[in-house]
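Reopening this one. Same input as before:
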Amino acid sequence: MRSMTMRAVFAACMVWAIAAGQNAAAGQHDAAGRDVWLINTHGVCGDCSAALESQSVGIWRLAGDCQWVASDLRSLWATDDPAAPTVIFVHGNNSSPDDAIQMAWPVYEQLCGDPSGHPFRLVIWAWPAERMVRGIRADLQLKACRSDTESVLVGQFVDRVQPQVPVTFIGYSFGARIIGGALELLAGGQLNGCCLPHKNVAPRVPMRAMLVAAAMDADWLLPGHRDGEALAQVDQLYLTVNGSDRVLRWYRLLYGAGGPEALGCAGPACCACLGPEQAKLDMADVTCAVGREHDWDHYLACSGICGKLGWYAFRQQPVGAADAAPPKEKPAAAKVQSSKNNKAVAKN
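Same output, byte for byte:
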């Protein structure tokens, strides 16, 4: 765990150093309005009844000099700003914290390239999705169970965010499953008998969600089903549909023969049953463009996510991808804060 986390920190410093160089050249500074946080739940047990603050959650904030600084949840919540939307990125299966950071990079890059120059807070949610046991099916079943725990943790985190702060979720594969469960809990529902321990009842700004290659049952969003209240928490939900995705086509084997299809493969079951909530769905059929691939980069390249980030994060009209040029080269090295801080990071 120590070496894995250290690799993630080093990779993150390299990635965000590139962004800092670009912003400096443009006369911008992330510390002025572009806040980046990393939440690592690898140290959290599977007990979904415990309060988030009492769990072993690793929290880091990216400082202006491209160093990850160990922090805590209270400090994160203290940066709530209704003028700076919070974007929460949740990765999928077989991903490490290093992978999560790399996957979040194009999201961060696109948000920085938005013509409005709008401030934002990006939260990268890294959960234990690495291979746990032998056997693909057994491992996926464990991750499905773990995703329920993560839904509770994400729900608790967002519940403590000020209601006036706009929140946008971006979830890939099992990350979409986590977000669906979190939205259900934020609506006051339960997940496997668990609910939010101290639900904030203050009216919240409607949230938004982008579910890419969603590894969750196709009927879960229907009223009375597992995530039947999730759509009530959002005013718009972007959903990719790919009937050829080679991983999602095997999703039903999680339950054995005859199991339900995946939402990201078949789309929502019985859309007409959603009633008025159906109007909130923004579906993109990417079957022809993505084909059999179950890969974040492939979906990101063709599904229009980048073009719609301004709409979902900043509540703007959808536009084409930003024209910001990619960095030409990487710096030779990047600083990590200190050996003492590294040890603290590695323990989590």
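So the earlier flakiness isn't reproducible anymore. For the record, Residues 2-23+34-347 form a domain with the Rossmann fold fold (CATH 3.40.50).
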